[in-house]
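Internal tracking record. Fields below are filled automatically when a chain is submitted to the structure queue. Please do not edit lines marked as system-generated. If the sequence contains nonstandard residues, flag them in the REMARKS field before resubmitting.
Queue: standard
Priority: normal
Entity type: single polypeptide chain
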Amino acid sequence: MLQRDSFFRGLIAAPLFFLVSPVSSQDIPSIVFQCDTEKHPQICEALAASLQQRQPGHGLAVVKPGDTRQAALTIRYQEEKRSSHFVSGQLVWQEPNGKPVTGPALEFSVMDSNVENVSLAPFAQALIEVSELPILKPVD
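SYSTEM-GENERATED OUTPUT FOLLOWS
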């Protein structure tokens, strides 16, 4: 009798879960990340991975600059300078109906190789950290 009761409770709980939390492919993403993947493939990939790692529960859409997709937060990578041994840039973000906010510029340099030959993950993580993006702040 006890096993059967547990089984029936499980059957009742399962449909309720699906009714309460529907998932749609047309949901508005929490974060739209605008990055020119043709011009800056390494940093775009590193930033997208870092954003996804920091907020795995948020929808993240990576789009080309100028895409007008709606989101709780739109983030854009803005490169300032680049050479074979360094790259500098910053993040610019905007909430719906808000003004764009520009984060601090950071520089990432390498001495024993070219920028194209190293991982830009540390640079991406540092950019996200110093920018204090509003959606990535811990909730109290």
